[in-house]
Structure formats: structure tokens, C-alpha cells
Amino acid sequence: MATFLESRPFRELRDIVGADACLTQPAELAPFLAEWRHRYESVAAAVLLPATTAETAAVIALCARHGIGVVPQGGNTGLVGGAVARSTAEAPQIVLSARRMHAIRELDPDNYTITAEAGCALAALQSAAAEADRFFPLSLASEGSCMLGGNLSTNAGGTNVLRYGTARELVLGLEVVLPDGRVFDGLRALRKDNTGYDLKQLFIGAEGTLGFITAATCKLYPRPRGVATALVALRDPAAAIALHSRARLALGDELIAFELLGRQALDFVLAWQPAARDPLAQPAPWYVLLEIATARDQASVEADLETFLADCLESELLLDGVLARSGPQREALWMLRHAVSDAQRVGGASIKNDVSVPVSQVAAFLELAGRRVAESLPGTRVVAFGHVGDGNIHYNLSQPEGMEAASFLDCWESLTAEVNAVAVALGGSFSAEHGIGLLKVPELRRYRGGVELQLMQAIKQAIDPAGIMNPGKILGD
Ligand SMILES: Cc1cc2nc3c(=O)[nH]c(=O)nc-3n(C[C@H](O)[C@H](O)[C@H](O)COP(=O)(O)OP(=O)(O)OC[C@H]3O[C@@H](n4cnc5c(N)ncnc54)[C@H](O)[C@@H]3O)c2cc1C
Hints:
- This protein is an alpha+beta fold and about 475 residues long.
- It has 4 domains: about 90 residues, Uridine Diphospho-n-acetylenolpyruvylglucosamine Reductase, domain 2; about 120 residues, Uridine Diphospho-n-acetylenolpyruvylglucosamine Reductase, domain 3 (2-Layer Sandwich), CATH 3.30.465; about 110 residues, Alpha-Beta Plaits (2-Layer Sandwich), CATH 3.30.70.2190; about 90 residues, Alpha-Beta Plaits.
- It is about 35% helix and about 20% strand.
- The chain contains 17 helices and 19 strands.
- Strand 18 and strand 19 form a beta hairpin.
- Helix 13 runs antiparallel to helix 15.
- The radius of gyration is 23 Å and the shape is globular.
- The site of flavin-adenine dinucleotide (FAD) has 37 residues, from strand 3, helix 5 and strand 10.
């Protein structure tokens, strides 16, 4: 029997994108199949890189006709196995990469909008906005590699959600190739457009299960003139939440980032990153990195943050703090926060969690989850950090010292179940910003079963009845 690569549908797919944009050799496929956390083995019959919406539509229409699974991919930085392909001889799957579709189609400074293609790297989008004296606020540690289509498909969050919202809130219009190859042209640049169901929102956060996003029109904001950043030390998470409430009252919408960092996380960064320096004279159990940004000048913004922090120190809410006085100092503080995921490697094997609770429940969550983890596996090191201004905690766990990595990883499900149970009991979510992918399918069924899951299944059935788009992701096989 002919293999997929010898088949006529494959030859037709290759003809659509051109031989150079149809990869089949193991060395060419490798970068598209490498999964960030090495939890999944990705197997694809081929990787296709269309250059236009028309090519994308033709590829997907052909896949629909022949029952070929399509796994959309952007920068491949997702953390839940969403861009992983599971091709077999009986059920071939291709990876459809947005990499060659990276044009910025239009930037309208007066409308404060930018229209870009799915393969535009997030950092390139930010730079284009800055060149036009505008600001695109989505910001993640992976911004050099992740792409707009991936950001929208995961409804990415990041460090500025507090003020600007998640990716969902930044989108005005979308262009999507549907699972039958038709193109939904919803690329409108309107802030007001009440015309029935808001279809674009269906595709945002859908992780490629309902279609392939080819382009989007996003909101831009005024580029901040002054940005002030500080790292402060706190005795416990309750103090961090009190600081958050006070900062919002005192600084209003100028507060754009509020990130929590436990001492264990900082210790790993200091051990891993030679350039990292302990930012304060004395170690503290908890830290918050906060940032304000305004249309006013740098000096006045720094003065505002300094006055606010001095008040908090005087009332003993803070133990200590440091204010960045230059661009490099600001970058050094952010590096401590951004390096945590990578730095956790120095602690051996790790189990990652991405939960959210109401901001008012963050301290209770950390207390209860800490207790449950310590009871389940004594010695587990908690690496808690994240976007606490959004109630989002990356509650990562590192293996106890001296334990075998494999034995620790065997506890992934049980420890994650403990952490998720605490979050859900406090009104939270087991998946704050990374999405479901393959990793959290069982949790979705457990915690969002019943009507919510039925509605999701009905939407999938209505839009992708043949189930060719990103098979198995979110809803399972
Ligand atoms: C160091 C690091 C830090 C991170 N920090 C954050 C953070 O702060 N906040 C956060 O939210 N995430 C974070 N992430 C996770 C990740 O970067 C985001 O989920 C990002 O939005 C994924 O974009 P991507 O282009 O890499 O998508 P990919 O990984 O390629 O794909 C992600 C999902 O989207 C689908 N998809 C991709 N492109 C398209 C498309 N054009 N149309 C339809 N579906 C598509 C894929 O099938 C997959 O299901 C981080 C990751 C790393 C490695």
C-alpha cells in the first residue's frame, strides 16, 4: 500500500505550497516537532508552510476532503501540547505552520489599530507599534518566538493583563480559514460593531480546534512616556495582596504589572543565571515586581512610585524595596522574573501548574496548596510565581532533594490534582493562561463537565463535524 507521502493528496498539498514549503525530512521536521517541555513526542506526516490565506484555505480544503488532520502551529512555545501532532499511517496529520505569513498588513495610527498576519512574532508586532509611537501591550517571556496566531489561539495573558486584559480583549477583527476551507473574513477595525454573535471570540482561545487564524486586527494604545519599575520584599502573600489593593487605589490604571516571586524561585534564578544578582541586602520570603506606565514623563512617574513605596515602607507593609533607575536596572529586575521557568531546571525535575483564583483568595490558595503538597510529598520545593495582579499563579513544584527525578514525575497527576482541587474550591480555575491542549483534557472533563462541556462539543460539531482541526486537543479524542 502506498504511504501518505506517496499518495495523490500529499502531492496535491505539496503543489499548493510549493516543494520548498513542504517539509518531510526528519531534520527539517525536528524544530516543528520539539515540544517545549519534552512531555510529548510529536509525529507529523509533513510540515506545510503556506505563504498566503488563499494557500492556507486550499490546504485545509484538501485536508477536509481526504480526512487529513491539521495541527496549526505558530512559534511552538505553548506549554500544554496544543501544537503537537500525532500522525499515524491510518490517520495522517500535518503541521500547518504560520511561519511564512508574517506581514504587517496595515497600521492605522489614528484608529490605534494594527492588522498583522498570524506568523508575525509578538516582539515584531510590539516593535512595529513602537515605531509608530504606539503600544501593543501583550507581553510574555516567550515574545521573541511566539506568534500572533498562537497568542490569539491560546488567549495569551502575560504581564500586562492587569491593565490591558488578555489577548481576547485586544482583538477587533479576525480572518480565519474554517475546517472546510472557507474563509471567515471578519477583519474589521471597529470598536463598536454590534451585529449578532461575536464570532471572532469563538476562535480566540480555541487552540486551533475550530479553524486556522490567518490574520487579526488588534488594538493599539498610546506609547507610555514614563515607566517605573520596582521590586519589593514582603513577609507573606497576604501582604502582597494588601499591597496590590493599595497600589490600585493609589496609582489607578497606571499600574500595569504586579508579579509575585517566592524566595525559592529567586534562589533558583540566582543559581542558574550568572548575571543575576540578589536585588536586596537581606533575603525575604516573598517579592513583588510592580510597574507603572503613564503618558507623563519619566521623572514624575518615578517620583510617584517612590512616594507610594515610601508610604508602604513607613506603614511596614513592605520589608524593603528597590526602584530601577535606568533601563538596564529595569531589565535586570524583569530578568529575575522572566528567568524562573528556565531556572527551575537547577532544582531537577519539575511539575508545572497554571492556576487562577480571585485575587482576594491568593494568600489562602498559597497556604492551603502548600499544606496539601507538603502532606502528599514531604520535601517538595514550591516555586510559586506569576501574575498575581490577575490572580494567576504558576504553582510549580521541584523534586525533593535526593529524590529520583522519575519517581517525582510519577507524582505529576496526584500533586496536580491536589493543587487544582484547592484552586477550584476557592472559586478558581485549573487553567489560567496556558490553555488545555493535550495536557489538561482530563481536568476539563472533571471540572467543566455537564452543560459547559456539552456546549463546547456542540460548537466543535457545528464548525468542524469531520474533526480535522487539531484532533484531540481541548475536548479529547
Ligand atoms: C518561557 C515561556 C513563557 C511563557 N509565558 C507565558 C505567559 O506569561 N502567558 C501566557 O499566556 N503564555 C505564556 N507562555 C506560553 C506560550 O508562549 C503562549 O501560549 C503563546 O501564546 C503561544 O504562542 P505560539 O505562537 O508559540 O503558539 P504555538 O505553541 O505554536 O500553538 C499554541 C496553540 O495555538 C494553536 N495555534 C497556533 N497558531 C495558530 C493559528 N494561526 N490558528 C489557529 N491555531 C493556532 C496551536 O495549534 C496550539 O494549540 C510562555 C511560554 C514560554 C516558553
